[in-house]
Design a protein that fits this description.
alpha+beta; five-stranded antiparallel β-sheet; rod-shaped
């Protein structure tokens, strides 16, 4: 958005008035402030066509994205409160400018930063953030400012002599601290609604809602002049009568018998003092009474009893009517002011002049005193800076020595740690080796025990098998002996049977030959006889020595069993 301001410089004047019944006097001015009047227009960029390279370069030269705007800032938020609201970002702020909006009790604030990134960060941080912690607080709306254009109806006078031809501009001074208003050297600047500029740090400590310069230069109307009737209206219901203005923030509201918006403002903000525009009286909502124009009498020789007594001065209309009555006491209808009024006027003017001279002298002496204090403070600062430099040098040397000691200690610690680590590693290795050897010995003992038990078990089994085999062998030997005897007997019988069979076969063969030979054969009628064999005894003796016969006898015995 880009605000377009059409300023028209004017002079904010506090006019004076004439006494009732006297000839009109020319308006008197106690202070002036240059203000700029105009109309603020906000434009949103929509449907922008693609820019050329030259246009982009020109736009970058004209605007670098460092400006943002706070739209519809409430009127109760004065410059100090606004600076306190944006205090976390003041280090990056170059300048702040407050502009009065056409909406009642609203203003537009322009903030320029040193860097575009800080402006974007400020927009992200504060856009949508409430101004106060209360539930019904208004929301801060931050928009990016692409360009600012001013259309002036007149050209202001140049600040520098044009004949010189040099671009030299005298920097103004801050009215609070009297330092130059240079944003690059003194931090951010803020311009309030009346056009005066201050350092952000200076105005942040100013808790009054009024401008410090306007509060001093634009004094109240002189003497007992009645204020002119303004066209003020209630900010809520637009009522022009029974109006009260908050003496803290300037909010205008109607009385409790009209709409009660002034009292509602007290309930919302806690601003407890309100001034009645028509009479000038001030009402305190906390005490529920008038607290305007209360003064404390000084002690005097004529009336010592009045020491410290509080009295109330009459309001503006009452004072005006009383002054008019005194002025008309010595003059007829249409005549000028009386001599008493002129004498009183001269006294008041002399008092005002003396008071002005006193204020000027006091301010001059105060300025001299502050300048002397500032010079002494600068001397103390220089001495402190020199001492600080010495201390910083000493601290630097001590820090160097401390760093060297730290390095040595760190080196020693590292070496000790390395040696300790090596020893611990060796101890751990020896412990692991000892544990491994113990495990090996334990495992060997376990295996030996197991092997011994297995061997003992095998030995017992072998012994049992051997005993069983011994028993079986004895029985087998007995069986073998018996089988051997039986085998020998059987063999002898077989031999006998073989001999008998041979003899029988021989006899049968011989018979057949005899029968074939017939009765004429010489062997006809012969007889056969069997002679004992001489090998019978020898066969009986050799029978037991034949292993095959013994095996056959054993097999026959097993089959019988």
């Amino acid at each position: 958005m880009a605000p377009l301001v059409s300023p028209r410089p004017a002079s904010a004047t506090l006019p004076g008035g004439s006494q009732a019944g006297a000839e009109p006097r020319p308006s008197e001015t106690s202070g002036t402030t240059d203000l700029f009047f105009g109309t603020i227009h906000l434009y949103r960029e929509l449907g922008a066509e693609p820019s050329t390279t030259a246009e982009k370069r020109r736009a970058k030269d004209e605007d670098d994205g460092r400006a943002v705007g706070l739209v519809s800032v409430p009127g109760v938020l004065n410059a100090a409160a606004l600076l306190e609201f944006i205090a976390p970002a003041l280090d990056d702020v170059e300048q702040v400018r407050m502009l009065r909006d056409a909406t009642p009790n609203r203003s537009l604030v322009l903030v320029r930063f040193h860097d575009a990134a800080k402006a974007d960060e400020f927009k992200r941080m504060y856009d949508g953030k409430p101004y106060h912690d209360s539930k019904d607080s208004e929301i801060c709306h931050v928009v990016s400012i692409s360009s600012i254009k001013l259309k002036a109806t007149s050209t202001p006078p140049p600040q520098v002599d044009p004949v010189s031809g040099r671009e030299l501009v005298e920097l103004p001074t801050c009215p609070v601290c009297l330092d130059t208003l240079d944003a690059r050297a003194n931090g951010g600047l803020v311009s309030v609604l009346c056009g005066h500029s201050f350092h952000c740090s200076c105005l942040l400590r100013w808790r009054d809602s009024r401008c410090p310069v306007c509060r001093y230069s634009n004094a109240r109307q002189r003497r007992n002049t009645v204020s002119e009737t303004s066209d003020a209206k209630c900010a809520v219901c637009q009522s022009p009568s029974n109006l009260w203005i908050c003496v803290i923030c300037g909010n205008v509201g109607c009385g409790r018998y009209q709409g009660g918006h002034a009292h509602s403002h007290f309930g919302e903000t806690g601003h407890s003092y309100s001034l009645e525009i028509s009479t000038g009286r001030i009402w305190s909502y906390l005490d529920d009474e008038y607290v305007h124009r209360l003064i404390r009498l000084r002690p005097s020789e004529s009336s010592p009893a009045s020491d410290g007594r509080l009295i109330e001065l009459p309001s503006l209309p009452i004072a005006a009517s009383a002054s008019a009555a005194r002025a008309g006491a010595g003059a007829g209808a249409g005549a000028g002011p009386g001599r008493d009024a002129e004498v009183e006027q001269d006294k008041l003017e002399a008092l005002a002049v003396s008071y002005g001279d006193l204020m000027s002298s006091q301010l001059a002496s105060q300025r001299e005193w502050f300048e002397e204090e500032l010079a002494r403070e600068k001397d103390r600062v220089r001495v402190s800076e020199a001492r600080r430099d010495e201390l910083e040098g000493e601290v630097g040397r001590l820090r160097g020595a401390l760093k060297e000691a730290d390095r040595r200690a760190e080196r020693e610690r590292s070496e000790g740690k390395r040696g300790r680590d090596e020893l611990e590693a060796r101890v751990d290795k020896l412990r692991r080796e000892a544990a491994h050897e113990a495990d090996e010995r334990r495992r060997e003992r376990t295996e030996a025990t197991k092997a011994r038990r297995a061997l003992e078990k095998d030995l017992d089994a072998e012994r049992a098998v051997t005993a069983s085999l011994s028993r079986n062998l004895a029985s087998l030997r007995d069986d073998l002996a018996a089988q051997t005897g039986e085998t020998a007997a059987v063999r002898s019988e077989v031999d006998d049977l073989k001999d008998q069979l041979n003899d029988l076969l021989a006899a049968l063969s011989l018979r057949d030959r005899i029968e074939q030979a017939g009765p004429d054969s010489e062997m006809a009628g012969a007889s056969l006889g069997v002679a004992p064999a001489p090998r019978q005894a020898a066969g009986a003796a050799e029978g037991p020595r034949n292993p095959s016969a013994a095996k056959a006898a054993a097999r026959r015995k097993k089959k019988k069993k």
